[in-house]
Amino acid sequence: DSTVSATGLSNNSSWGGILKDLIWQLPLLAFLIWFCFDYLVSGFWIMIMVVAVYLQILAIWRPIATKLMTYSGKWRKRVLSILDNLVFWVSPAILLIMVSPKWDGWGFAFTLGVLWYLFLFIRQSSDYFYRNDLKIERIKWRLRRFYYRTILQIPFVGKRQTPFKALSGISLDIGTGMYGLLGPNGAGKSTLMRIISGIFEQSYGKIWINGIDTQEKREELQGLIGYLPQAFGSYENMSAWNYLDYQAILKGITNLQVREERLKYVLGAVNMLDRRNEKIGSFSGGMKQRIGIAEILLHLPRILVVDEPTAGLDPRERIRFRNLLVELSRERIVLFSTHIIEDIASSCNQLAVIDKGEVKYQGSPLEMVDLAEGLIWEYLISTEEFSHVSDEQVIVNHVKEGEKIRVRCISQKKPYESALRVEPVLEDAYLCLLKNIKAEVYD
User: Fold this and answer.
1) How many angstroms separate the CA atoms of 348 and 180, rounded?
2) To 5 degrees, how large is the angle CA 441–CA 69–CA 160?
3) What pLDDT score was predicted for residue 72?
4) Taking each helix axis from N to C terminus, what angle separates 43-70 and 15-34, rounded to the nearest 10 degrees?
């Protein structure tokens, strides 16, 4: 059996990592304090080193504070936040008071303090702007707009390039069979599949195939993976047989007899052997996707990575293609991404829901449905009342029935007097995950 594991595609620190860093960070801080306050004489170098001491204090404190906040309650988080602000804002003043006797008078220490705090204030304002994704045009106060517009023009301190993180903390273990990746457009599904296929290289974390690190043995493992992107090119004036024969030669299958046997096998596997002499340009969308599968089967991969294969196909073609993937998954891993919930529900025994680069759920579709238990309601409402439906509920669908509208919605509380709880389906659970709606405990 084949297995694929993707672990920790992010830069999350653990307590073990923090303690390992403290082994060298604390002695370095002690050395910097001694070097700055006892050894140095030059005012310029004292100024440089006092800033270095401050940065080292932050480098030690910030990871510890972040980790403590992860496991803390509301009040502890508030206390830690206050303590973090004290370390950030008060440390420069304490350090300057301690080092000022080495300078002639308080004038230089005061000037340095003003510049230091101005730098910190601008930096914090810039952080707040980018962290909350503010838009200058939408800020109401003119003075505040002017302030942000000014600081965002200052290089390095105020202006910055916001890094885009496509995936964060993805950890999956995928075994033989159909494994679905479900998520909205732009969630990070294609990025993950390209990392597994070796097209992209991850910034952090590891990908293992049968326990082998793909970064160390990429060339050896490449032959195990077949990747079908959402849009792939083919020569539409060639027949299916000639096109696949050409691709087989490019893949190094030069023996004529072996090549013919391989072409018969792959065309038979995708139920296209009887159409082998027809031009690809005459095929429907689903048939072209099958030729794409046949192409990646040429080197007999153990892992098929298929990105949005049913997008744009009509319902009948979609069902045929899903059934083909299920057949192929009996002997190999098929990693199948889509944003169409029906495709996952009818073909995958395991799935992961990805949204904004994070895994919201992984497990079986049946267990995922249970997440929406007690949250799904249906009721009839007049057309006039429908326009005033409460924002506390998420409308799954609504259908007009005579003079009224039947509403199916997600809500933690009873949304309407005549509303009745109904059994959830996979689509309901998917919306609950994306909207982060969880069931409350009822007496």
Assistant:
1) 6
2) 115
3) 63
4) 160
